[in-house]
Amino acid sequence: MKNYDAIVIGAGHNGLTNAAFLAKAGLDVLVLEKNDYIGGATVSRELQEGWKYSNCSYVCSLFRPEIYQALDLGRHGLEVVPLQGGVTFKQDGDYYGNYHQSALKYREIARHSKRDADAAVRFDADLMKWCRLIRGFLLRTPPDPTSFKIRDAMEFASLLKAFYELSESQIYEFIRFFTMSIAEYLEEYFESEVIKAHFSGGSIIGTGLGVYSPGTAYVLLHHAMGDVDGNVGSWGFARGGMGSVSGAIASSFKSHGGEIRSGAEVEQINVSGRKATGVTLANGEVINAKAVVSNLDAKRTFLKIMDKKDLPDELVTRAENFKIRGSSGKLNIALDGMPDFPALGENSPLTLGHMHFSDTLERLERAYDDWKDDRWSADPYVDIVIPTQYEPTMAPPGKHMMSVFVQYCPVEAEGGWTEEKKQAFGQTVINQIADYSPNFKDLLVHAEIRTPKEIEAEVGLTEGNIFQGELTLDQLMFNRPFPGYAQYRGPVKNMYMCSSSNHPGGGVMGAPGANAAREILMDFGKTDTTPEDFGDD
Question: Rg of the chain over CA atoms, in angstroms?
């Protein structure tokens, strides 16, 4: 029986990133995936003949350029096209257009509020200031605040140095930012309801919180930390759909001798003498390795595929209490043509970006209220993109694919999901789109409707939570996933974690996988590289 240096459980993008760096450093690595395809939530699938859906994750912005370069993903086929602007439609027939060009954006905001046009410049500058501060820690291992090791002390010194460069008022502002609701934060800048509603959307996507919930201001920052072609805060589409991201990483991994086995579900991580020794598959096969790396979220890792007798009681309790609430749904829609949006006129560039229909903070909060009562939102917040405007190969000639991300959708809809309830949820979303696009329903060829239940069943995201754990202050940095376990090492020797349940969190970022690989390679004595030069030979 072959013994591997490392087994990575789960071929999502973080698992593949982790495996690729390990293989690049010379380790013999096996990736095990329960599905018959790779990518996890970062996948492209043809669920309607001729149409290719990015049926879970749907835009690319957070993926770290350092990882892109280190794994040479361009050579392996990954190309990201910048997404242009966006729009929020108003119920009165008007709209707010968030143009990509700064001059157009300023004039458009001034059309709604001259005061807000000036405030937007300050808002963007302040948000980018915090983005640049936080981005410096995305590819670093969080220090252990209880440790007296030199490495942890040096990491804390690095944190302090970053804050030392801030003024006293900026430090107070930063602390407030982490604890504020997005509504309160935006109200310090803007007066226009539609402007506040437009910019608040990113703070609730994938989150079991509402716009007035403390901590949602940081979620907006989390979504704004990515970049495309060096433009901080930009979003983009991967050519060929989001499966191109995982496909390129897998190609890089295989180029370094890595092995992927699909249709291989892991039932248990095997432990002997307080050391991980390998895994047992659902079919009973045992595979041994010097290290085992879980790309599953914290709940699934410690409550599903590890024996409780191998875990400290405190860790089991922490895993049970880990906040990982499902609140999102998804529709992938095949269209017979490009839908009309009369408010915009013909050939508007605003359809190239994100499209939303919630034009007030009150509407957003009421949508959240429905979710708290185990109902899907009667007036949901939707984030719509039509990637076939950039990548026509994802649909037949002249046709289009629409991706619709929905807040809010409960894990259990008032007593449990049925097929009838799922279809009713989907129809609620379709009806809302049709309110602003009169020919939309006539163009509809196929709609894949996904509640948190389907998302969890297919790709293993507990409760369908796209971040694999809420991005609240108690679950960030050295608290993610739990205090004492934030440095990617598990409770037994040779067991590691690389999923988005770990620092710096969710989204198609790759950072948790890369950071975990650095720690594993250090334990293997393969490298002493720093976070800044990680990935260099």
Answer: 23
Whether 313 maps to a domain, the answer reads: yes
* Side-chain-facing half-sphere of 274: CA atoms under 13 Å: 3
Q: Higher confidence at residue 168 or residue 35?
A: 35
The number of residues in the chain equals 537
Q: Reduce the DSSP state of residue 443 to 3 states and report it.
A: helix
Cis peptide before 408 (omega within 30 of 0): yes
Q: For 143-168, what is each residue's pLDDT tens digit?
A: 888 887 888 888 888 877 777 777 88
Burial of 288 per CB tally in 10 Å (0-12, 13-18, 19+): middle
3-class state of residue 41 by DSSP: coil
**Residue 487 burial (CB count, 10 A):** 21
Domain CATH code at residue 293: 3.50.50.60
Eight-state DSSP code of residue 411: S
Please give the Cα distance from 6 to 520 (Å, whole number). Answer: 9
pLDDT of 535 > 70? The answer is no
CA 515 to mean position of chain CA atoms: 16
Any domain includes 401: no
Q: Which tokens is 269 given?
A: 């991580």
Which 3 state secondary structure label does DSSP give 477? Answer: helix
86 CB neighbour count, 10 Å cutoff: 23
pLDDT exceeds cutoff 80 at 463: yes
Say if CB 106 and CB 122 are below 8 A apart.
Answer: no
CA 365, CA 104: separation in Å to the nearest integer?
30
Helices (H) and strands (E) in the chain, counts: 17, 20
Q: Could you give the CA distance from residue 432 to residue 407 in angstroms, rounded to a whole number?
A: 13
For CA atoms 70, 75, 76, 82, the dihedral sign is positive
Whole-number Cα distances in Å, 114 to 194, 199, 353:
14, 17, 24
| Rounded distance between C-alpha atoms, residue 258 and residue 251, angstroms | 9
Give how many domains the chain has, as a whole number: 1
pTM higher than 0.90, yes or no?
A: yes
Residue 60 falls inside a structural domain: no
Range of the domain at 496: 3-44+66-79+239-322+470-533
Check if the beta carbon of residue 307 is closer than 8 Å to that of residue 490. no
Strands 3-9 and 444-450: unpaired
Give the up-direction half-sphere exposure of residue 273: CA atoms within 13 A in the CB hemisphere. 2
Cβ contacts of 240 within 8 Å, gap of 6 or more: 44, 52, 77, 247, 391, 393, 394
Angstrom distance (rounded) from CA 247 to CA 240: 10
Q: Is 181 exposed, middle or buried (0-12, 13-18, 19+ CB in 10 A)?
A: buried
Which residue has 């290290």 as its token pair?
291
Judge contact between 361 and 239, C-beta under 8 A. Answer: no
